[in-house]
Amino acid sequence: MSETAIDLDRVEGVLFDCYDTLLDVSTDERSLESYRHLCIWAAYQGVRIDPEVLRDEYRQRIGEAMEAVGGEYPEVRVEDIFAGICRDYAVWPVDTADLSIHFARSFRAATARKVCAFPRTRRLLSAFDGYRLGIVSNGQRVFSEIELRMFGLYPFFDTVVFSSDIGCKKPDRRIFFAALGRLGITPQEALFIGDSRKNDLEPSRALGMQTLHIKEAWDLFVV
User: What is the pLDDT of residue 4?
Assistant: First the structure.
């Protein structure tokens, strides 16, 4: 939770986390049933792979790609992972770049168990009308942007920075500075709202931002 009162007089922009703050999304990437459906879809696209193999390949390639990126909080683009799988398991010539995007989104759809916006999200964003707004999220643009657009939230924001854009995840300070730079504000001019102490509140506060836990923000700004 926040440790000090919020001084809105010095706030020029508000940064939000995405998941468990604006969107309520849960997934299950371990269920073999999800991969069975995905593999049937993939076969119609020209990629033939067994569900167990797809699950293992995905996990292994993610791990290897993260190691290659390096750093304490590395991030990769999942469409790049699926591009490699498409290349290696295609049974006829495919447009790997295009198919990998559809594969990533189909993967998200197959593994999603809940996708919705919190009931108070739109009212919270409306409460900051007139401020520069941004998102800093440990998310994959290939489907996370779609999820924001799904509920009409994307147009609220002046900038949206996903970890897949930057190659690192929160709490790495680089992702915060990327969003601040795009908004044209300093940390001292920003308010950060999120749900995670480790990934949202502590690192943004350490950079000089004011912070609120999402539940505090609801209490303060949503009637």
Answer: 54
The H helix count followed by the E strand count for the chain is 10, 7
Tokens 């147009």: give the residue. 155
Local structure of 26: helix, strand or coil: strand
Question: pTM of the entire structure?
Answer: 0.95
Q: Are 132 and 158 in contact (CB under 8 A)?
A: yes
- Beta strands in 44-177, from DSSP E residues, in sequence order: 112-117, 132-137, 159-162
Report CA torsion sign: 42, 75, 131, 219.
positive
Query: What pLDDT is recorded for position 2?
Result: 46
CA pair distance 178, 161, nearest whole angstrom = 7
Strands ordered across the beta sheet of 190-194: 159-162, 132-137, 13-16, 190-194, 210-213
In tens, the pLDDT along 122-139 reads 999 999 999 999 999 999
Contact indicator for 146, 79 with CB cutoff of 8 Å: no
Residue with tokens 């939230």: 153
